[in-house]
Model the fold of this input.
Amino acid sequence: MATLYRVKRWLADGAHFGIVAAFTIFAAFPFYWMLITTFKRTTDLMNRTHNPFLFHEPPTLEHLRVLFYDTLYGRWLANTALVGVLVVVITLVLAVPAGYALARLTGRWGEQLGIGIFLTYLVPPTLLFIPLSRVVVGLGLQDSLWSLVLVYPSFTVPFSTWLLMGFFKAIPSDLEDAAMIDGYSRLGAFAKIVMPISIAGILTVVIFSFTLVMQEFVYALTFISPVSQYTVSVGVPTFLVHGDVYFWGSLMAGCFIASVPIAVVYNFFVDRFIAGFTVGAVK
Amino acid sequence: MEAVKGEARVLLGAPATRFSYIRDREEWLGPLMLGPAILYIVLVVGFPFFLALYYSVSDITLGSRSLGFVGLKNFTGVIGTTKFQTALKNTFVFAILSQLLVLVLGNVLALALQKDFRGKWLVRLLILLPWVAPISLGTIGWLWIVDSIYSVINWMLRAVGIFGPTFWPIWLGVPHLAMGTVIAVHVWRLLPLATVILLAGLSSIPKDIHDAAQVDGASFWRHYFQVTLPLLLPVAVVALLFGLVFAFTDMTVIYVLTRGGPYDTTQVLASLAFFTGVAGGDLAEGAAISLFLFPLLLAAAIGFLRIARRSEVV
Done:
């Protein structure tokens, strides 16, 4: 009886391990493959008799050299970082006060309005990119990173406002009441008491907005044509993939570098994003 | 409360300027803090949306300055084309198949991740990668994996003997295979989000409910289908709604992998709108095509509203 139980237990653990392993491989394999390809010589990559999992020739840094010296990859990273920082600042300026107002100052109709703002997050770029491309031209911002700085908050602000609203609601309002009895104004209580203890929520919004900026593809593809003004998510797939010539080593290096570090940071905040995503369906 | 605050300020001798008056009047402060965000959303989301509506009934193109009213000509014109009909059908096949797979696989994975085991944080990080990495870049990884000559998948399947020596499928070159590949990449991309949402749902189910089912001697399947799944349903609907919105409106995976090919067999509404409106310069027709996505969004929005309302009541 005891052995039967042990065998059953062993089988269940084995199945569990198998499922987790299979999904992990499915999710991570493309990134592992990017990493391997980055360091392989082209003659090694382009030989069909070679086992693609092994290095038949010594590893090389040539693809990385090409990526950083012969393409504008470094520039694209800098462009992305610049747009990212500016969009994060705009997002905070708009979403922090809005989130607080929805949490504390607007009562019942604020809740409806909050859901309304959240829903604008669902409006996809593919519905708006055609009229927005004309708006961008009208403002003289075509082919400029400023067009992205103008438009990107349209998807970072709604979700950030929603996240921050939930965050501020979780802070006991007694804190501000006490501060206001001590002579602070409502605004003063918000700035001096609520903001300092909300650093975690604000950091969440920063990471979330920055990741969305890095991921965005459709607007950047539509608004910008000079290669030097690309962001990394558009530059790599459009400029490094041209015609029938694929620089697989450099391509994969470019994808890996722009993907994995940000994902590691994101991972620390993921539970907070999910709390936002579940729209209160999870208590 | 107001009186107490006022008194406190008098006691502390704070100057009662006009500004400090506003700082305390909550009926003004609320709209003032909310205003900029609302204004921005109205200008950058609301205004272009109405512009899209207007373009769709006009004859605007990239080259011309004319903006004449042509009624529903763009809609009626586009509905009749096989290109559009294929794209519409593809959009539904693509979104519904990928979301079915995501829901089923996401449930399996969430159940597996609910258990504690060593190295769980690393597994979670790796599983989240496809969702966090820029989608256009992750997709290029797949482009290399399914390459027509050097596909590692083909190499592996041949090495273990599943593919014969002459069998070498070109994943993106054959209509059904191309659709299958595009769906697989989309499942890969959206599975992490669904999984973590479902995981949050699973861990919110009170433990005594599971204990009660166990004491009553429910088998694994019965326990899952009659206890866990019904309690998970609202969260599963949220995951599904997000997935559907992202799948119905995304064009990045298709743009990078196939550009709609071969022979438009992977063209969806979003990518067709791009190729018509931006690459082709016919803004009016592009706007009309992308507006076909709007009813779907409306349905999703209503779904979210119902969930949000219900969760407030509970």
In short: Strands of chain A lie at 241-242, 245-246. The CA atoms of residues 125 and 218 of chain A lie 7 Å apart.
